[in-house]
């Protein structure tokens, strides 16, 4: 932590800052500048928000943190990439570029079975589908809940595809965990710390989506909540951030992929469906994600987007998904990754 | 809902759109333009996300909603302002400009009692204080939990100030409700719909903070979740939104006050502490809130900001709070509101 | 400047950084931390972007500037407020709260004369009106150019109100200066450095609007461009920044007022018309600006908003402006400022 | 244009709106809804900001534009892609993926010659380099001006690479045009309409960068300024937008590439250097741009980034650029584009 003194601060204010730094368990180290002094507080500052309070002392202009606030999520602690095993033979973060696909919401048996078969045939390795849906409107379809989970399990039985599905309420963690292979935390819950803590105690991979206004650093702190509880199988997912631009539903922060890969050992996938909100923009963003170094994708696919209970406009039809997967292979090749071939 | 057709769309596409509108229970109404056609879908579109799927039909360029998506929160359904009674004689949304104040976190008995006495003496009408703290870092102070709630109850007993405190986990709603007079939903939980639904079933006022990247419309939809469950005592709170500017912790969207007052009958208060992040910016934002037409404030006050377990830099000292309240009276007067006088 | 080393950096990298700091004319000062070292570069770093290049050296994680990059605009160099005299007896930044008002564009003689008389009668002290209009669309009305300037001069002659008007092209600076009392730089030109430099050589007050995505620091650097050329009469103007919120045209960053007043000695006014985009939101934002400590306002007024060539929806009618001014007096009183009374 | 009436609006207000629509030269067409009426104004609304003023009439809730405001820039007017010829045999927007590279600023003869040779050898097709530099600080290096242009011309003579360089002042257009093959408009000047109009009268390709807070629609309107003056050779360039995220200098809006390709016939390239601000993030963003369907790149390369007068941290060293180009080929192949081979 660096404490920047005001140019008007005198010896007394400086002495007070040094005293306070010592009281908090750090060692002060002053650099006398030409127009102002700065004081380094030497010691491990992580998690000690309390150092920020130095800002309230007279003569202090600002307090600048030096260390990254996360530990377990960082490359410094663990330089080698984390390989998250979903089921034997299926790993996210390794050589394979892993595609997850399926409808926004599970709607009925035929819908989920038809989609599961189609995405499997095209090369998807996991089936996505929402049973508990966080919807902006209380009047919108809220998901089939446990009935939806059962249908996902049925689709898994039929196709062999492991299942990723969202949990929104700490109360439902146990229920969802009975059915899901990967537990998804949606963008709106990225700082639902009660939920994150419970998931940290689970022995199951977690797909943690970035929030729509979460900085990279805050995002890694959310991952840290899960890691700190003991669950090390966290998959990150860039899904677009909120900006002034309205041509797309969100703005896909594609540079977040290499930024994250640089700062953390956790795998990073991309959700081009929520990022763009328009089906015709999904394929180019799939290719861009592979090119940028992502470890995989999660893509919305619906057999009849015009009838979808949610997110129809951003869902690919099975045929479009198949074509995207075919073209995708050239990009994952170029990126030095393997892609599961279509049947 | 207005469906805008592409200029290249022909009769067949138009017929398909009309057919589909009818199937969904609306009446289509075509306007033939000079370069393209638009189709109105007449009927109550609220809550029917399904109309958005028309966007997936061939020849459709975009789908533009016309109705506001909320019902119960809107002025059209209930033109007169909602008066939220906290305890007999204390109403938010009426003539009185109501100030809530207290520390970010409850830390110990002496801290909360000292603060409660000081803010009461200066004219505050409710005591704020966090017992369950949603913190970005898992290593930061997470609140005293039930012990904190008990200390708040003690301070209420001693000063007579009703208590507003945050709940973050649906599991804790019942517990917090046993102690709190007003249940606070923090910015990070504004779209924690599981929590909102539970609070909608409570017979207690809810202070619902705007999220840091929540639009006005989404914000009112979150209020709608509570209202739709039957709890009509919702207080809104503008607390700053996330923008590119880093000089302040968030950007106080002061115009949100008249925008909200125009669209909804619910009372609107302002949180200048989280909005700015710096104590010296809090008083001018308090005055601006009163001038903009807010119904009150929620302000962080700490007897010793330099020792605060959280949010020290943005907390007013009791003496600064007292001075702010003294100056505030002139602004609430100018706004035609009354302010509880200091002792 | 603080150079943060990577935790993996060794002695050799550190030595290289120190050597480089010395070469650039600074004195290196190392703080040995528990997990990493940081190096202070002591010396006046302002304007020396070159120190940022230390970031390219091996072993360097980041480079953190300590000094504010502006000099002349800062409070540290000139603690007392700058009083900008417009004409004898009219000063912005002093005790008087100065209101500038008028139409977005000058359209014709009757429009500008009618408006000038009305805003003067209501207490405005300057007349605003655009002759050169920067419009998003090439097909929109681009202003009357010199003809507009002549009409402004006519209105000044008739009412005695000094005139503030925008200049968009360095080529037109001389022309506009022949007519204007205050030269306005619009939001889109806040980083049109060629224009700023020319205005810095003028002996005339400059009204410099903040850009829609300009940080406070960048904004002050733009003011510095004018000040550095010798013109010290710069008036700042917060007019809303671009955010994700679409309920208003821009988001009025009201906290920018005290932030700026704290960092600079230059006067700060507020433009509630462009900030909100809706006439009914303008009065509450005028009151909020006065309460937040602004030195004045610039408000769009049009006798017939429904016929305005530009910005009709955000223009007040003369009668609404008069009412606003009447209510405003109570807020400027509360803020300890005087307001020019209506006739 | 669709005019949405308030639910409280009566027959009189509706009649007034219809009358006004007719006066403005449109045909009104009313759709009677269940809770409110909407009125379509049939006719070509482009460039007629004046319709927006309907918003000021009593009983009107909002005015929703239907047509895109640009004409010449749109796909509807010209469906086939525009091929911008730079010099005979070099076309942007065709089959070839065109890479432009060079230093941020031209600093001296050896620097620009060394860079020009290196980027040519690696496969670049144009040389970039700034002679007029728009810098945030008035104390930062402002460019070599005409001396810089001469050095660029020298480098062109020596290597055969056409030159792209920025113009910031309308006054310098003629001067820069004497040396440059492509005239660049920087992000800060995207709405410098005086400059755009002059460039529209030039017979030379224009590289128009997106502004940091320019929407796609505003961006195309800026292109329209150039096109409307007669110059049809406009190249667009996505270079990152300003958001809350600070891990990168800007946020590369990669989805803007397919969005633009869909709406306009103009070619679109990407600037990964300004978008990210960090050299190590540049190569993955180059690959992502190719994958997303861009027509080329403009990349900053400097032989000694640690000595660069500007933008050192985001400049690739020649060796890194060469490696990037080598890997890039696989991605342009996958995208069905050709890349100029290295020597």
From TrEMBL, chains A, B, C, D:
Domain DAHP synthetase I/KDSA: start-end pairs: 93-325
Taxonomic superkingdom: Bacteria
Gene Ontology terms for molecular function: aldehyde-lyase activity; transferase activity
Residues annotated as signal peptide: none
Keyword Transferase (UniProt): yes
Domain DAHP synthase ferredoxin-like: 1-68
Record-linked Pfam families: DAHP_snth_FXD, DAHP_synth_1
Keywords: Transferase
Claim: Iron is one of the keywords in the record: no
GO biological process: aromatic amino acid family biosynthetic process
Protein name as catalogued: 3-deoxy-D-arabinoheptulosonate-7-phosphate synthase
Organism from which the protein derives: Geothermobacter ehrlichii
């Amino acid at each position: 932590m660096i404490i920047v003194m005001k140019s008007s601060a005198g010896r007394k204010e400086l002495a007070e800052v040094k005293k306070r730094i010592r009281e908090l368990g750090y060692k002060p180290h002053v650099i006398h500048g030409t127009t102002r002094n700065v004081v380094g507080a030497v010691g491990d500052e992580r998690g000690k928000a309390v150092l920020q309070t130095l800002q309230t002392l007279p003569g202090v202009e600002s307090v600048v943190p030096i260390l990254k606030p996360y530990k377990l999520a960082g490359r410094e602690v663990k330089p080698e990439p984390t390989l998250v095993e979903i089921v034997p033979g299926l790993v996210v973060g390794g050589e394979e570029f892993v595609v997850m696909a399926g409808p926004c919401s599970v709607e009925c048996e035929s819908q989920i079975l038809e989609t599961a078969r189609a995405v499997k045939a095209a090369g998807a390795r996991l089936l996505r589908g929402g049973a508990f849906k966080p919807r902006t409107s209380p009047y919108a379809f809220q998901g089939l809940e446990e009935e939806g989970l059962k249908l996902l399990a049925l689709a898994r039985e039929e196709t062999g595809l492991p299942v990723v599905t969202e949990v929104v309420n700490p109360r439902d963690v146990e229920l969802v965990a009975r059915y899901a292979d990967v537990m998804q935390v949606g963008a709106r819950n990225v700082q639902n710390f009660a939920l994150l803590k419970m998931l940290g105690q689970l022995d199951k991979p977690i797909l943690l989506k970035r929030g729509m206004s979460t900085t990279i650093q805050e995002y890694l702190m959310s991952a840290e909540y899960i890691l700190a509880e003991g669950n090390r199988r966290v998959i990150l997912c860039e899904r677009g951030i909120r900006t002034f631009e309205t041509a797309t539903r969100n703005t896909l922060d594609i540079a977040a992929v290499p930024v994250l890969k640089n700062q953390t050992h956790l795998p990073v996938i991309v959700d081009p469906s929520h990022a763009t909100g328009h089906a015709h923009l999904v394929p180019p963003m799939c290719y861009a994600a592979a090119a940028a170094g992502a470890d995989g994708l999660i893509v919305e696919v619906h057999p009849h987007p015009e009838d979808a209970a949610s997110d129809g406009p951003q869902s690919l039809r099975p045929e479009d998904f198949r074509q995207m997967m075919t073209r995708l292979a050239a990009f994952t090749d170029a990126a030095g990754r393997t892609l599961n071939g279509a049947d």
